[in-house]
Amino acid sequence: MAHIDQSKIRNFCIVAHIDHGKSTLADRIIERTGLLTSREMQAQVLDNMDLERERGITIKAQTVRTIYKAKDGEEYIFNLIDTPGHVDFNYEVSRSLAACDGAILVVDAAQGIEAQTLANVYLALDHDLEVFPVINKIDLPSAEPERVKEEIEDVIGLEAEDAPLISAKNGIGIDDVLEAIVHRLPAPKGNPDNPLQALIFDSLYDSYKGVIIFCRLMEGRVAKGTSICMMATGAVADVVEVGYFGAGQFIPCEELSAGMVGYITASIKNVKDTAVGDTVTDNNRPCKEPLPGYKKVNSMVYCGVYPADSAKYPDLRDALEKLQLNDASLNYEPETSIALGFGFRCGFLGLLHLEIIQERLEREYNLDLVTTAPGVIYKVHKTNGEVIELTNPSNLPDPSEIEYMEEPVVSAEIMVTTEFIGPIMELCQERRGRYLGMEYMEATRALLKYELPLNEIIYDFFDALKSRSRGYASFDYELKGYEQSELVKLDILINKEEVDALSFIVHKDNAYERGRKMCEKLKEEIPRHLFEIPIQAAVGGKVIARETVKAMRKDVLAKCYGGDITRKKKLLEKQKEGKKRMRQIGNVEIPQKAFMSVLKLDEN
Amino acid sequence: MKTEKRPLSIYVHIPFCARKCLYCDFLSAPADEQTKEKYVRCLTEEIRQNSTAFGEYEVQTVFFGGGTPSVLPAENIGDILKEIRQDFVLNPEAEITIEVNPGSADLKKLRTYRDMGINRLSIGLQSAIDEELKALGRIHSAEDFFETYNNAVKSGFNNINIDLMSAIPGQTIESYRETLKRVLSLNPLPKHISAYSLIIEEGTPFYENTPPLPDEDTDRELYKITNDILKVAGYHRYEISNYAMKGYECRHNKVYWKRGEYLGFGIGAASLIKNVRFSNIRDISEYMETLDYSKIRTDRQELSVEEQMEEFMFLGLRLIRGILFREFEENFGKSVEEVYPRVIGKLKEQGLLTEICDEQGNRTGICLTQFGLDVSNRVMAEFLLT
Hints:
The complex is a heterodimer.
Chain A: E1 9-16, H1 22-32, H2 50-55, E2 62-69, E3 75-82, H3 90-98, E4 102-108, H4 115-126, E5 130-136, H5 145-156, H6 174-184, E6 197-206, E7 210-219, E8 221-223, E9 227-230, E10 236-238, E11 241-245, E12 250-253, E13 255-257, E14 261-265, E15 279-282, E16 301-307, H7 313-326, E17 331-337, E18 341-348, H8 351-364, E19 369-371, E20 375-376, E21 378-382, E22 387-390, E23 402-417, H9 421-430, E24 434-442, E25 445-453, H10 454-457, H11 461-468, E26 474-485, E27 487-494, E28 497-498, E29 504-507, H12 511-525, E30 533-539, E31 542-549, H13 565-580, E32 582-585, E33 588-591, H14 592-597
Parallel strand pairs in A: 1-3, 1-4, 4-5
Antiparallel strand pairs in A: 2-3, 6-7, 6-15, 7-14, 8-13, 9-10, 9-15, 11-12, 11-14, 16-18, 16-19, 16-20, 17-18, 21-22, 21-23, 23-25, 23-26, 24-25, 27-28, 27-29, 27-30, 30-31, 32-33
Helix pairs in contact in A: 1-6
Chain B: E1 6-14, H1 33-49, E2 57-66, H2 74-87, E3 90-100, H3 107-115, E4 120-126, H4 130-136, H5 142-154, E5 159-166, H6 173-184, E6 192-197, H7 205-208, H8 216-232, E7 236-239, E8 242-244, H9 251-257, E9 262-265, E10 270-273, E11 276-280, H10 284-289, E12 297-302, H11 305-316, E13 323-324, H12 325-332, H13 336-339, H14 343-349, E14 353-357, E15 363-368, H15 370-374, H16 376-381
Helix pairs in contact in B: 1-2, 2-3, 6-8
């Protein structure tokens, strides 16, 4: 294999606020550098899960290598590392950034800088990346490229005068971006003769090859036969294959060396052995120390996941097992609920991650699911000095055994146009937010800083934020730590029976309000039975809210006409079918839907 | 020696009306004279073509339903009936019913019906309160009804049914009592009363734009007083929504509940012959362009034994007398308890079903309780096997 000239390599990523056109720009770069003809291009090549394409978001980091023939006549290798765009996947973003030397900052010409623009660009600068901005969507009627340039200079302090003005969607200005990649982003450094030191920024499970490690070589080289060691997990394996990334395919090569981005396979069976952020080294000639920044990713949000049809429990277990092969941040362990039967308590990075896993289970594995209200991890300090990390409200010890409880708190930054500051501050107040300060970005936009309990934002905070700012507010957060809080367990009783799957932990001051809303919502969802059904919310055995589903008094068919029995039978069948979708709690049938609807209590 | 013929019922669908009522989801619409005429010609053709292979049958009941069959000229009905008489063996005592709407049948028309052998009338009154009729989108007044009724009596009709409706928009317990009172002041009294409650069906104007309806408690109260008042007036309830004087239960309707055999003619009409259900196509133009009427039958469904059993149960339970264990066993060679080991016990426990016993105290069958009648859908759905 020809020697690869390090100075002709550019490892970079694109950072942007969600919807500012990151993936579309990536597509254009791939298309222009000739990796795929535009006929072969399906929009957004890098988002290769159906779900990613549909939602227009990137979930897993994706990487592609293309060759660009620049105006100086030289050929350059571009390694484009696409990063997830959502705050749930912050750690993955940070590892992807660590694999790059430079970044393109995409800013929407109409919307300007948003909360995630800032969060991501600061993240990139923290990793010492060279960053240059491009202004996208300049063909929009509402585009104000000059204003946005100024904003970038004022707010971020990045030189933006020469920022390419582009429309990724319509292919305008893409050549300027390609040239800027060559001239404004640095080539990688690192010595191929040093001991191997490579950063894992993603991994993927393949049923034939085992785990495929996506990595960036900082120092040294790796080839087939090299005995490698994952420094944090300690896993050791012999390399079977190395290579780089074509569009949607893996292209094997002889060797990867310092400065290159590529993949390694080594018959590793478990993605957990190849944690994102870990350092790969040569087992026989290890580097002195691992690359900095590795941390174990912990789940932030937990919920119970149950098959709608309890016979599908083994299918759900298999599906979770398979998903976990590809998603090391997904945790699960079996649990049982009196109401829902056998299922799993699953841990996720955040609510989006939860939704994605849920959708993938339903779509790719064809499962009907019932999920319980998502919760966070509470620390329960018991009077005997023991500390429990509580992920399932049902496991809360008796109040007499609890000394105090702690809940996770995040630092949040909300960017909002000034006219909505009032409503947004009000929202944060309602969600027990602690105001830290406000900065004006420019005359009409401000950055609000709050500390918020995580359990107040995992349900519908984002939706509420959008609706109270007519879609203009943007939001970013990071975990700050734990704080003591007065929390109680709210129980729901249906026909005097406690429904464990509906219990959740809530701040004492919000218990009444939430209990009342839960009861109201459940009253709508539970169909009338032949008897009256009380729905109660209780804290520590004391009922704090109540609704009643009245008894059904009448259910008869309309006129049965001209002997059309088939049609009438269909109605009866529908009724019977509806019953199958119910959960039996005592002698009350609760629709599956009821368990989910209580997650969205704040819709007005 | 007289050979026993198999009983058969005939339903004839007339899909025309003067104007569609707001709640109506039946296959019916206003049409011009030409269409009506052509439809009647096609109908007689269908009867002629599809009557072969019924030599072993004798027709016991004929029912002209709609729509409003009385929007057709009386002669048209005569032609259809004539065709039936030509092609089938019609029992001289057969029950022959036609539905009429107040205002659409004058004395002359009613006399013609009587002369052609029609012996039962079903008049769609719904309510004797004009505001309520208006709310339903009906085109007649209460006064029109009384005139039609008197003309019917004058024409010699003795067996008359009146359709009543409860849970009409704007209806109150008092207004419903008033309707019943007016009906029960008729002289002579109608022999049969059908009392349904309004159900909002998909695809009707009421579904799109539902008017405020009486609440569920009022609805049920209306249902209850129907039973109470009609009982005192000498009617007995023999089916969930049907009341009759002794000897005047509708024979045609009972065929449906007892799974007797029937043939439907006209668009959308349903049939049950030898445990095969089918229905005619619903598209009128297609129906009228057909030359071969064996091809208009669709949705052919040969009933499995399970399907026959579930039908036996959910149709039979519509009758107040319920179902008889003996009949079930005769039909299927199995006992009801064998086929529904748990259901009956559960429904009895819930107070929805009760047992019927003979004079010796032997359990002979089951029927719905008063509560079971109110929520009969719940009960019937339990008897589905498939």
